[in-house]
């Protein structure tokens, strides 16, 4: 049987071409904006580090070197966000001394983000830094992928094998999903702080939509939840983390950390929550409050899983379910409903875009 050709009218073809052209314009503009913001922010951090470094000798002579950085950080964090913490200001000093050449920092061929430079700064070997910086730029690695490549000792393996071309050729297929894009770049907490948008919320993101629904559920439950922060930025061991939701429970008198996981609960999720709870216990815990509590909301393929965690003497442990918290089956049901609604809205939005 002869196949019948489906003809497309000139009007539809023209509309599809127009849609494709406009999309290309939007994506190109986004890329230029992201590139410009990145260059300006990275250069700003470099200059801040240079200023602090240049002032160090004068400060030492004045005998108050231990007080300047904490004081400076306190004022900057209050005015411009957590990206200007004392630890990050010290990173900026290291940045300016590790990369003393200003043109290399803002080179258009590099376009590495601040998170990339944080991963590169600890590397002592200049050739090693150059290798990873070049690879991250050429292959458009995210900062997470760069850290993974450093941890896997890619440079050392390349040097030992003398077969760099083979390894480089394999990179595009090994971690394509981790490549940087303008959308991913603009979610960087350092970028949001730099633009004064550290409370920005990603409306179009599927996972963020589920989190918004769960946030509304906790706040409307009447059980004493007060919102402290969304996407709470934490710095631990030279890495940056964002906790989905942080509440204060008035009745329980303790902080409650809520994290959404798309997939089944795993050991690494428990470890991550332990890091969150220890950070909160160290930096946010007030006298008279009980230790922070963690709630993992896991949305799996077949079922929802709710895990309650708290700090113990030997580390994080499963906690007793407390009065004042929504029942597990209620949380599971709400999570299931929120996930389904978010998936439906997400599908509708993409369908509308696709239909132009």
UniProtKB/TrEMBL annotation:
Protein name according to UniProt: DUF1016 family protein
Pfam family, one: DUF1016_N
Residues covered by the YhcG N-terminal domain: 21-157
Record InterPro entries: PD-DEXK-like_domain, tRNA_endonuc-like_dom_sf, YhcG_C, YhcG_N
Gene Ontology molecular function: any one: nucleic acid binding
Organism of derivation: Delftia lacustris
Positions of the YhcG PDDEXK nuclease domain: 185-308
Domain of life, per lineage: Bacteria
